[in-house]
UniProtKB/TrEMBL annotation:
Belongs to the AB hydrolase superfamily. MetX family. GO terms for cellular component: cytoplasm. It catalyses: L-homoserine + acetyl-CoA = O-acetyl-L-homoserine + CoA. Its EC number is 2.3.1.31. This is Homoserine O-acetyltransferase. The active site is at S138, D292, H321. The lineage of its organism: Bacteria, Pseudomonadati, Bacteroidota, Cytophagia, Cytophagales. It comes from Rapidithrix thailandica. GO terms for molecular function: homoserine O-acetyltransferase activity. InterPro entries: AB_hydrolase_1 (IPR000073), AB_hydrolase_fold (IPR029058), HAT_MetX-like (IPR008220).
Length: 353
């Protein structure tokens, strides 16, 4: 029997933030599907990307859901909407208990580590003493890696896709350029729900250039009419993608979470990124996307090179970074092989071959 629902975790104590400041408690919206077995060996925790939400079957279709690799019939799937977002968790449009009005621009800066600490409080609330498989791509992969470093004994398997151990200057520059677009919108200075709306449309259009690549646009937006000199498909596509995000997101959360992404650095306070990665004890799979220009494969190769007990795979995709959401058939095959290899290694170890 399939069980699927979105719930809310309310933390009513003061939550100290890494960069200073506090939240007077917070709420996380989270989604569960399936039934947890007695030894919690079927638990799968998903960390979502920048504009994702808790309902993983909606945005990772093909990898999660009925008939998919991760499904409610076999697994207990958990995904929580992160702090700073706008899908039920505490974020900039939430009510500030100190003022009785929304936070707006006063929402404090949060980091990947803050997000992970809040997720772990939810994990404790759910009485999960182990996570069998922790998986995430992009910003979700950053969370998963941070969690695996913070609590190396917690998860048995770790799968990270199209992500890095430290956000790059290239990635920071992309994010800052998007925030400049938001800040250029005169309405961004105001404290209202739709502040920076036009800027968000422009920011998302900029982001699409990093989520896809030259080949993607060449194949999907190419003009067959050689006489055409205006009103190009690529132009309307950029506007469409920007307005599409505006219908479901807001500039405040985009600003907050892009800043959190910039903060990602496993090495901070741990000597070095390399030393931090050596703390990971989970059986790890790292997947890079050959055509990814935002998180190029050099970053996934780095993770694999400095992580013990790791399997590394590269997949090709016309869709660049977005391939981690689209190429679910390739991901499924790779992850299935990863689990088979792990089980074979375990058998060899147990039998003493």
């Amino acid at each position: 029997m399939r069980c699927m629902q979105t719930r809310y975790f309310h933390y009513d104590q003061e939550f100290e933030l890494e960069k200073g400041g506090t939240l007077k408690g917070f709420t996380l919206a989270y989604y569960t599907a399936g039934t947890l077995n007695a030894d919690q060996s079927n638990s799968v925790w998903v960390c979502h990307a920048l504009t994702g939400n808790a309902e993983v079957e909606d945005w990772w279709t093909g990898l999660f859901g009925e008939g998919c690799l991760f499904n409610a019939e076999e697994h207990f799937v958990i995904c929580a909407n992160v702090l700073g977002s706008c899908y039920g968790s505490t974020g900039p449009l939430s009510m500030n208990p100190e003022t009785g009005t929304p936070y707006y621009h006063d929402f404090p800066d949060i980091t990947i580590r803050d997000i992970v600490r809040s997720l772990d409080l939810l994990r404790q609330h759910l009485q999960l003493v182990r996570i069998n498989t922790l998986i995430g791509g992009s910003l979700g992969g950053q969370q998963a890696l941070e969690w695996a470093v913070q609590q190396p004994e917690l998860m048995e398997n770790l799968i990270v896709i199209g992500t890095n151990a430290r956000h790059s200057p290239w990635g920071v520059a992309f994010n800052e350029t998007q925030r400049l677009a938001i800040a250029a919108d005169p309405s961004w200075k105001e404290s209202k729900e739709d502040a920076g709306a036009d800027g968000l449309v422009a920011a998302r259009a900029i982001a699409m250039l990093s989520y896809r690549n030259y080949e993607t646009y060449q194949k999907t937006q190419y003009e067959e009419d050689i006489e055409k000199s205006d009103d190009f498909r690529a132009s309307s596509y950029q506007v469409y993608q920007g307005k599409k995000l505006l219908n479901r997101f807001n500039a405040y959360s985009y600003w907050t979470l892009s800043k959190a992404m910039d903060s990602h650095n496993l090495g901070r306070g741990r000597g070095s990124v390399e030393e931090a990665l050596k703390k990971v004890k989970a059986y790890t799979m790292v997947i890079g996307i050959v055509t990814d220009v935002l998180f190029p494969i050099i970053e996934q190769r780095f993770i694999a090179r400095h992580t013990d007990n790791v399997t590394y795979e590269e997949i090709n995709s016309m869709y660049g970074h977005d391939g981690f959401l689209i190429e679910t058939e390739k991901l499924t095959k790779g992850i299935q092989a990863f689990f088979k290899q792990k089980n074979r290694k375990k058998l060899i170890h147990d039998e003493g071959y």
